[in-house]
């Protein structure tokens, strides 16, 4: 089988790239390791920057997002039993974020691909890349017992942090930068109205907590837990008890508990691999970088990578210019490192770090106080939270 772009991974990065390419008349095939049902059932991020919303609109998949997405003009920080609102819209000259689950984004993209009748291989086993340093790269895999080979011009590595693409690059051709945090987030999804109309990021001496949502009827909550914690150790009751202890009393009192629809633990990590290109292989999204979820940047970075990669591929195939592909990695990384910095900083600001000494704890409190008391400091947070320009 032959195609122009072989896309490895049917997460948001791979599906969005496939949709944009298909609409531009560029042939592509998606190869995904898991089943379609598994891909559609993953619960992950929930906050979209304006740039991502605009890109989904350009891709023709923003209909339901425009009807059901919740536009938020602000977010709240909570500490020392008080709630402080950061007015995103006022501090950024009118910018906002949209609350719409990654699960829904994925669903809309899968549906659009099916409607266009573009080929996708799900449950592909033993995916391997070949001849990526030539202009005739190949992808081999198995569907059940049947061996498949895909010949292509370009491979888009959209297969996430644990994927095969980054690992196919020779070690001496790529450099990794990493920080692993000594804790994770225990997340719980529940069909109960959100505790408050906007997201609440809470710092507490017992640890960080986050009140988020998916709709006016569905809430998503997170609490910081030690690194090696097991989900089984947390009943729904224990989760809500701990969550309430970390929130201001007025919020804890109105928060409605309920049975979890989903409960899972995500580790926290900062990671960047550069460059994001080797020969005809281009990495995008979690395949090249990870952020801790505190700044809500992971999904949005996958989208901005795809913006740059799509533009570069369009130049390559339609304008016959290699300039875009040559500059893809540097363009994408310039934005990625700034989002890495913001996510790392938000993580440091809001979590409890077991190793911090009393002086460092006072510094953390002073920074929180400064942030909610200084419009200049709050504006820096707001500018990053709504998303830096593409
Ligand atoms: P994805 O979504 O991981 O998709 C990669 C796809 O590639 C497939 N794959 C392979 N396919 C073929 N061959 C192989 N060898 C393959 N290996 C893997 C996988 O099955 C998968 O379908 O990456 P993508 O598209 O780059 O999208 C990135 C986002 O998903 C990610 O940044 C965010 O979801 C990160 N993230 C969160 N971000 C937030 O902003 N807020 C959150 O609350 C939040 N929660 C999370 C998260 C990531 C998590 N992970 C990665 C475990 C919670 C979790 C649990
Ligand atoms: C979520 O709703 O899952 C969510 C929201 C904001 C974050 C992280 C996760 O910073």
Offer a quick outline of the entry.
The protein has 390 residues and is α+β, with helices and mostly antiparallel strands.
Q: Could you characterize the architecture of this molecule?
A:
The chain has 390 residues and is an alpha+beta fold. It has helices at 12-23, 36-41, 50-58, 63-68, 88-91, 102-116, 236-245, 249-254, 298-318, 323-350, 358-373, 375-385; strands spanning 5-8, 28-31, 47-48, 70-72, 75-79, 82-86, 97-99, 120-121, 124-130, 138-143, 146-151, 154-157, 175-190, 200-202, 209-215, 218-226, 260-274, 277-278, 281-283, 289-290. An eight-stranded mixed sheet has the order 6-5-14-15-16-13-17-20, with helices on both faces. A six-stranded mixed sheet has the order 8-2-1-12-19-18, with helices on one face. Strands 3-7-4 form a three-stranded antiparallel sheet. The longest helix is centred in the C-terminal third of the chain and has 28 residues, at 323-350. The two termini are 35 Å apart. The mean pLDDT is 97. The structure holds 8-demethyl-8-dimethylamino-flavin-adenine-dinucleotide and P-hydroxybenzoic acid. 8-demethyl-8-dimethylamino-flavin-adenine-dinucleotide binds next to helix 1, strand 9 and helix 9.
Number of strands: 20
Helix content: 25-40%
Backbone structural class: alpha+beta
CATH superfamily annotation of the largest domain: FAD/NAD(P)-binding domain
Number of discrete domains: 2
Q: Calculate Rg over CA atoms.
A: 21 Å
* Gap between N and C termini: 35 Å
- Mean pLDDT comes to 97
């Amino acid at each position: 089988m032959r195609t122009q772009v072989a896309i490895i991974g049917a997460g948001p990065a791979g599906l969005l790239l496939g949709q944009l390419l298909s609409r531009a008349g560029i042939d592509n095939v998606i190869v995904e390791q898991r089943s379609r049902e598994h891909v559609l059932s993953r619960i992950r991020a929930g906050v979209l920057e304006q740039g991502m919303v605009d890109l989904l609109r350009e891709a023709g998949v923003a209909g339901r997002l425009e009807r059901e997405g919740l536009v938020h003009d602000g977010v709240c920080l909570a500490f020392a039993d008080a709630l402080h609102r950061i007015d995103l819209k006022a501090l950024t000259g009118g910018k906002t974020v949209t609350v719409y689950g990654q699960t829904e984004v994925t669903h809309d993209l899968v549906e659009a691909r099916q409607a266009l009748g573009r080929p996708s291989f799900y449950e592909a086993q033993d995916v391997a890349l070949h001849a990526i340093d030539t202009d005739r790269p190949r992808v081999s895999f198995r569907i059940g017992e049947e061996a498949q080979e895909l010949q292509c011009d370009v491979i888009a590595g959209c297969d996430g942090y644990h994927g095969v693409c980054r690992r196919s690059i020779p070690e001496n051709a790529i450099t990794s930068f990493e920080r692993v945090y000594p804790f994770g987030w225990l997340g719980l999804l529940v069909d109960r109205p959100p505790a408050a109309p906007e997201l609440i990021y809470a710092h507490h001496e017992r640890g960080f907590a986050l009140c988020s949502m998916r709709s006016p009827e569905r809430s998503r909550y997170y609490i910081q837990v030690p690194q090696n914690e097991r989900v089984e150790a947390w009943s729904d009751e224990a989760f809500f008890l701990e969550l309430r202890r970390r929130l201001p009393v007025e919020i804890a009192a109105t928060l409605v508990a309920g049975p979890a629809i989903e409960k899972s633990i995500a580790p926290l990590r900062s990671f960047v691999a550069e460059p994001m290109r080797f020969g005809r292989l281009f990495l995008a999204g979690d395949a090249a970088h990870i952020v801790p979820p505190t700044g809500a940047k992971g999904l949005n970075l996958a989208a901005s990578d795809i913006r740059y990669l799509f533009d570069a591929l369009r130049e390559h195939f339609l304008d016959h210019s290699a300039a875009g592909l040559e500059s893809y990695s540097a363009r994408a990384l310039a934005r990625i490192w700034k989002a890495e910095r913001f996510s790392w900083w938000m993580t440091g600001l809001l979590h409890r770090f077991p190793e911090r000494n009393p002086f460092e704890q006072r510094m953390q409190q002073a920074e929180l106080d400064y942030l909610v008391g200084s419009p200049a400091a709050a504006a820096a947070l707001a500018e990053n939270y709504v998303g830096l320009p593409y």
